[in-house]
Amino acid sequence: MAENIPVGSTTDGAVQVGGGQPADARVSAPASYDVADFPVPHGREEEWRFTPLERLRGLHDGTAVDDGGVRHDIFSPSGVTTELVDRDDPRVGRAGKPVDRVAAQVYSSFQKATVITVPKETVLTEPVRIAAHGQGGTAYAHHVIEVGAFAEAVVILDHTGDATFGGNVEYILGDGAKLTAVSVQDWGDKAVHAGQHTALIGRDASFRSVVVTFGGDLVRLHPRINYAGPGGEAELYGLYFTDDGQHQEHRLFVDHAVPHCRSNVVYKGALQGRQAHAVWIGDVLIRAAAEGTDTYELNRNLVLTDGARVDSVPNLEIETGEIVGAGHASATGRFEDEQLFYLMSRGIPAAEARRLVVRGFFAELVQQIGVAELQERLLEKIDAELEASV
Fold it and tell me: Which of 99, 142, 209, 338: disulfide with 113, CB 3.0–4.6 Å?
């Protein structure tokens, strides 16, 4: 069901205009570096009610012990610096504090944080690549990606293998900087991955996030956007393909706290197989000081087989009427037999026709990556997922 809410209207708990209590408790979640400030979840809490806690393997209650189960390899162009620092380094936590128990557990458990710095006014001609390969154990990691003023960069985080992994990532953009961050969750079937991605966007800076989730038994990611000055722009794109038995959960929060900033969110998912479960939560808060805000969020889901389940919850809270625009939409539907029939009537075999329809559904998002070999790899992965279901 699609929904486009204009400024000034309300729906049951999804949109609020004006002051008073937040429309949803998620937009005012507490933030702390101390894991003790977050009670162990039991699954009845609003922020945990969709998550099968028993499948988190202790990431949520402190019983998961770091045994070095993920190897990180970093490949960076000339001029980019990489450092291992302690958690008291002033750059760690600058983008924002943890907002749930898993993110706080990661913060208190990592051995060293990795800080990758792109100097100001540097324009990279090739991406920074972070390869995280699971080796069957448990690991915690914290990465800080800092892009200096007026610098431009692409950063790719590529997760493969099998592991139980808690990972936080911070993106810090200086004034006028441009960053495209691609996070690929191409884990093996047994992997568990949970963590928080937080961006702090400087004045007139542009941040593009592309989150791609295919693998893993359970993946739960929490992207968050904060603005440090007027004129900041955030584009959040997501692509997920949820198979039989997988749980994939993306919980976004965009905090418009300064004036004249923009955000655009587009997440799309395809699901197939029984017990496939995708969750998308999109929270946008426009605070009273954020005049001139322009924001929109969209989630679309394509259900390919019976037995799959989608929970899609957009939320929009507006505390000022002096904005450019704000809206959201959510739609979930089955595979259109009419599209398949149309292609087959023109001589295209059924399997190929199905592949073309699903590729077309995701094409807009894949093109946002801007790295040709990665785009082709993801399209091949989509094809492989579809072939496995035939």
Answer: 142
What is the C-alpha separation between 172 and 364, in angstroms, rounded?
26
Residue 388: the pLDDT is: 66
The DSSP line for 145-180 is: EEE-TT-EEEEEEEEEEEEEEEEEEEEEE-TT-EEE
Neighbours of 177 (CB within 10 A): 28
Residue 102: both structure tokens together: 């898993």
Percentage helix, strand, coil, to 5, in the chain?
A: 15, 45, 40
At residue 354, φ and ψ (nearest 5 deg) are -65, -40
Written as six digits, the tokens of 349 are: 């075999």
Beta-sheet strands, E only, within the chain: 15-17, 70-75, 81-85, 113-118, 128-147, 152-173, 178-185, 192-201, 206-213, 218-227, 233-242, 247-256, 262-271, 277-286, 294-303, 309-318, 325-334
pLDDT (tens digit per residue) in 93-121: 999 999 999 999 999 999 999 999 999 99
Distance CA 187, CA 18 (A): 43
User: Any idea where the domains of the chain sit in the sequence?
Assistant: 15-336, 337-390
Question: Residue 19 and residue 16: Cα distance in Å, rounded?
Answer: 8
The count of other CB atoms within 10 Å of the CB of residue 152 is 17
How far is the C-alpha of 84 from the C-alpha of 105, rounded, in Å?
Answer: 19
How far apart (Å, rounded) are the C-alpha atoms in residues 201 and 365? 22
